[in-house]
Amino acid sequence: MQLIHALDPLRSAIDALRADGAIALVPTMGALHDGHLTLVREAKAKAAHVVVSIFVNPLQFGANEDLDAYPRQLERDCALLEAEGVAVVWAPKVETMYPAGFATNISVSGVSEGLDGAARPGHFDGVATVVCKLFNQVLPDVALFGEKDWQQLAVIRRMARDLDLTRPHADAILGVPTVREADGLAMSSRNAYLTREQRAAAVALPTAMRAAIAEIEGGVPVGDALSALARALLAGGFLSVDYAELCDAADLSVLPARSDKPMRLLVAARIGKARLIDNMAVAP
Ligand code: AMP
C-alpha cells in the first residue's frame, strides 16, 4: 500500500493502477470505523484497485464547528486500510488541495439547500468542491459513499450529473447502507466526542426514529410523529434537535404528509459536544 501526500506521485500511482484494472475511490476524513471499512470492502468487490482518500476538508466546516477537534489518526487508519488490501491512501496536505490563490466553489442548488444545508451554511459547497477535486485527482471508475450522509450522497450525484462527469459517471456513484453499532446507533467518527453516559443516551436517536417511522407508516399525522420524536430526544438527554423531517428520498423536498414515492426520515440532533445525524427509509 502506498501512502501519498503530493499530486505528482499520486498521478504516477494512478496511471500504474489504471493500466492494470479499474479503480474505486472511497473519500473519507479519516478516524476510520467499521462503516468506512464496509465502504472499502464494497469498493474491493467493484474494482481491481481501491484508493482511499483521507482529508479533513476545512471548506466543509463552519467557523464555529469542530475542524480543530476532529479526530486525526493517520497511522492507525493506514494500518486498517493496509489490512483491507487498499492500494493507495491519498492524504493531501491542506496547501496541496487549496494552494494560494484557490478561488473556485462548486455550489449545487436545490438538493443542498434544506436540512444540513440550512443548518450548516456553506457545508455542501465545501463537500461538492472537494469531492469534485478528488474525482479529478483519482479519476475513479466508481466512487462509494455512505447512506449515513444521505443528503451528501444526493448532492454529489446531482453534481456529477450536472457537470457530465465521466470518472466517475453519476451512475457509478454508489451508496452503501449505514453501518450501526449493536444498539442501533449509526457509526460515526464524531461518536468519539461522547462521554460514556452520552454514548448510552445516544441510542435514543435510532430508537425514536424507528418509533416515528412506525407511527407514520401506521397513519399517525407526520407532524405529530415528528413532534413526538423531538420530545423523545430531548427527554432522552439530547440538548437540541436541528431538524427532524420526512423528505422525498430523491430530491429531499420536505413532505408534510406521506407520499407514495420513496421517503426518508432525516434527523440532526446535539448531545454533549457531538452533533449526530441519521436517516432511515420510510415505506409508502
Ligand atoms: P466521513 O469520514 O465521515 O466523511 O465519511 C466518509 C464516508 O464514509 C462517507 O461516504 C460517509 O457517508 C461514510 N460513512 C460514515 N459513517 C458511515 C456508516 N456508519 N455507515 C456507512 N457509511 C458511513
Task: Outline the structure in words.
- It is found in: Cytoplasm.
- Pfam families: Pantoate_ligase (PF02569).
- Keywords: ATP-binding, Cytoplasm, Ligase, Nucleotide-binding, Pantothenate biosynthesis.
- The protein is α/β, with parallel strands linked by helices.
- The protein has 2 domains: 175 residues, Rossmann fold (3-Layer(aba) Sandwich), CATH 3.40.50.620; 94 residues, Pantoate--beta-alanine Ligase, Chain: A,domain 2 (2-Layer Sandwich).
- The protein has 10 helices and 9 strands.
- Strands 1-4-3-2-5-6 form a 6-stranded parallel beta sheet, sandwiched between helices.
- The protein starts with a strand and ends with a strand.
- The model has no long low-confidence stretch (mean pLDDT 98).
- The site of adenosine monophosphate has 17 residues, from helix 2 and strand 5.
Q: What is the CATH fold-level name of the largest domain?
A: Rossmann fold
Binned strand content: 15-25%
Let me know the largest β-sheet.
Answer: 6 strands, parallel
Low-confidence stretches: none
Given helix and strand content, the structural type is alpha/beta
Shape designation: globular
Strand order of the largest sheet: 1-4-3-2-5-6
**Are any ligands bound, and if so which?**
adenosine monophosphate
The CATH architecture assignment of the largest domain turns out to be: 3-Layer(aba) Sandwich
How many strands?
A: 9
**Mean pLDDT level:** 98
* C-alpha Rg (nearest Å): 19 Å
Helix count equals 10
Report the span from N to C terminus: 45 Å
Percent of residues in helical segments? 25-40%
Main location: cytoplasm
Keywords: ATP-binding, Cytoplasm, Ligase, Nucleotide-binding, Pantothenate biosynthesis
Binding site for (R)-pantoate: 60, 152
GO molecular function: ATP binding; pantoate-beta-alanine ligase activity
